[in-house]
Structures are given as C-alpha cells and as structure tokens.
UDP-glucose 6-dehydrogenase (Duganella radicis), 451 residues
Amino acid sequence: MKITIIGTGYVGLVTGACLAELGNDVFCLDVDQRKIDLLNNGGIPIHEPGLEEVVARNRAAGRLQFSTDVAASVAHGDVQFIAVGTPPDEDGSADLQYVLAAARNIGRHMTGFKVVVDKSTVPVGTGDRVKAALQEELAARGAHASFSVVSNPEFLKEGAAVEDFMRPDRIVIGHDSTAEGQKAAAMMKKLYAPFNRNHERTFWMDVRSAEFTKYAANSMLATRISFMNELANLADRVGVDIEAVRHGIGSDPRIGHSFLYAGAGYGGSCFPKDVQALERTARQYDQDLLILRAVEAVNDKQKLVLGQKVIRRFGEDLGGQHFAVWGLAFKPNTDDMREAPSRVLLRQLIDAGATVAVYDPVAMAEARRVLALDLTPDQLARVRFAASPMDALAGAEALVIVTEWKAFRSPDFERIRAALKQAVIFDGRNLFEPEVMAEAAFEYHGIGRSI
Ligand code: NAD
Ligand code: UGA
C-alpha cells in the first residue's frame, strides 16, 4: 500500500520504517529540514535499538523515502498518518496546532479519497476537528474529495519501539460507520493484516473511544507507578522491602508484574503530558479526576526523593562536595531526556552547592543540550561530562544512579569503592540487593528498601 507519515519523530519514523519493512511504499514527511537531510544521508536522529538497520534496509530497497515536500507527501499516500507532536499547552491540555496544521496540508492538496489516521495521542473529539479542518480546506479551494478520519493510537515504548511496533499486543482502530468509514476500516484491516495472521489483535471501535483508550492506558500505567512510589516511601519509614512487596502483589494475576517498579519517578514525553491532558479534558466537562491529580503530584514529589536522600546524608549545604551520577536518559535504551528525573536531581544537587560528574551510555550529547537550557552557565560549569562510568566516580563522595542501564547492573564494586571517597550508593532504580551491598560493605540507599 502507499502510505504517508506526517511527522518523522519517534513514532513517525518507527511507524514509517516498520510499515516499509512489511512491504509498503512509505513516504515520510517532516517540517524539520535538518532531520530530513540527516535521514537522506543515512543518519538516524534518535537512539532506538534496531531502527537504523530497518531504515537502511528499506531505503536501499526503495520502499522508504524522506522529504519536506508537502504536496508530494499528500499525493503519495492513500493512507495519511498524522504522527506529529502533541505537547502540553500552558494549561496542560494537548496543543493540537501541529495535528491541525498537518490536516490542513492534506486538505489543501488532496484530490482523491484519503484515509487520514490520527496516530498522535490526541484528546477525545480531535477526530472531529481534523475532519472540520479538512472540510474547510477543501471548501476554500472549491474542491471535492472524499476522506475518512480514523484514530489509531500508538502504544510503543521508547527503547523498544521497533520490537513493540512489530509485535503489538493490540492494535486499536476507531472509525465511523459511514460508507467512507467502512472503506477506511477495510484499508486499515489490509494494512495491519500481517500483525493479525496467527492471532487477531485489532480492537475496532468508534473514533472517540479509540482516542480515549490511549489516555486511559497511559494514565493507568502512570497510576501504578505513582502508587508503588508512594508505598515505597512508606516502606522506607516502616522498615519494609518494596521489592518483596512487588513480588508478593505482582504474582496475583489480577495485578500482574509489569509497571510496579518504584524508583526516581516517571519521565518521558508521554506519561507526564498525557496524565495532565486527561485531567484537563475532565475539567472541561466539569469533572475533577482526583486520582490523576494525585498521580501527578506524587510523581513530582518522587523526582525529589533521591536528591533528598543525598541531602539527608551529606547535609543541606553540599558546597565543596562532589557526586557521581550514572544515567541521564528518562529510561534505558534511549537518548531521550524529556522530563527525565535526572534533570530534577542535578538541579537539586547543584542548588545545594555540589559539583557533579555525569555519565550516560547514549544520552551525553542530548544531556549537554538540555542541561544548557536547564542550568545557568555558572551552574553548568559545576557539571563534568565524564567519559565512562568509572571516570565519573573519581573523587566523588558517593554514586547516585538514576537510570537502570544494563551496563550499570553488574559493576566492579571494588573499583567503585577505590574511586569513591566514601563507599555510599544512592540507587534510584533498585538495581542491587541491600544484603549484597551490606556484605560488600557499601552504605546503600535504595527506594523503599530501608530494611
Ligand atoms: P516527536 O517530537 O519526536 O516528533 C514529531 C515530529 O513531527 C517532529 O519531527 C516535527 O518536526 C514534526 N512535525 C511537526 N509539525 C509537522 C507538520 N505540520 N508536518 C510534518 N511534520 C511535522 O514526537 P513523538 O515522540 O514521535 O510523538 C508524536 C505523537 O505520538 C505524540 O502525540 C505522542 O504523544 C505520541 N506517542 C509518542 C510515543 C513515544 O514513545 N515517543 C509513543 C506513543 C505515542
Ligand atoms: C510509555 C508507555 O509505556 C507506552 O505504551 C506509550 O506508547 C508511550 O508511553 C507513549 O504514549 O509515549 P515510554 O514513555 O516510552 O512509554 O516508556 P515507559 O517504559 O512506559 O517508561 C516511562 C517512565 O516510567 C520511565 O521514566 C520509567 O523509568 C518509568 N517507570 C516505568 C517506572 O518508574 N516504573 C515502572 O515500573 C515502569
């Protein structure tokens, strides 16, 4: 099938590359000329395991092209995926300007039938607004072309995006019951057929329910994390091991093991903004989503917990003290630092007067970029970007771990001890067992593990 993807970011690039891998003829559009030039020169703008190979293979096969040419992109795809950003507005609601601009571009150039797919995470009712934008553009140039707007939210996780896209646990498709809606559904069914061969994974519903499903999923996952974080903080007070509790409750199939890890708080481009946007939608309908407000408040507090542990141990005034920080990305296997807990921790340590040496396996360049925005030049001068995990440790009072990269899971504890001034580890992701750390004579501070 001929597919256009509008927006070549995390979701758009992965969707485009994976649909090309299935044999489709894919045209990826972006407004960012630098991103398109990089892709056309064989580069990849993001760190995502496996993506580079899929992109290279499909470019070479002539099934995947990148361009900024809007007219050509609209002419290309029978199915037009909108995969642009939906960042939070000032009031927390989703900013739909990019989605609606993409829709207008389609309306401005389309001649024949198009399926317009909202893949971006968008609030309930956005399908109607996309439809109206298309109709307005068609009317403005006196053109007649039929189309159908479909909702097909994306559930991939960064760091596992290609794997998640290629092996989805579900595909949600919302469409309407008009003749165009049925035609669009048939085209979506054909497009996703390779994923449904052994097992039907598609859930068909109306557009509004599909839009809502995406927010419900992210909000549920964020709720689980905040709930566990709140329990972990209590566990620290009452002498309970939250990891034992996680096993104890996760084995109940009604609860399940996933997304029960207490830690330094959730980050990333989606949970924080989607929780806020759903709360905002509720407020527009005079409903106060009390649980989600708490989820957000708990997460804001949780991002401070690791730094508070350091301050409790080393004092309110960290002047003259130096710390090593391992892990800067908001989660492993990505270089994404949007809403990363490490950014809050670094601010806390620096505001308290400390100097830091930081290391991340892939996010160093991104860290330099975002920390230059977060910190003043004087504050930034107190950050050393280390060349390796061991290099970060030199002369530090203690090690603080914020992201659970695999490379941090089995370190050489003797070398760590030799490099640090004091054998103290603050572990924001509960990578190690407190008993093992005690045996190795480390002072160990996990999250919810003060047993
Ligand atoms: P992103 O910021 O990485 O990429 C968005 C891209 O769209 C950018 O490259 C931007 O230049 C481009 N763009 C903006 N306006 C455009 C226009 N009019 N025409 C063409 N290109 C345009 O965003 P993302 O992380 O890929 O997220 C996209 C959407 O998918 C969001 O709604 C997000 O909530 C949702 N989502 C993201 C993830 C994720 O893991 N990142 C997962 C599921 C859903
Ligand atoms: C999340 C969802 O998992 C995806 O299904 C969804 O498509 C995506 O948001 C989106 O809409 O963008 P992502 O943000 O890439 O994916 O990463 P997650 O693995 O969900 O992690 C999010 C944050 O939660 C990370 O900071 C992670 O450290 C934290 N987390 C996760 C925990 O603190 N505890 C856990 O048990 C799991």
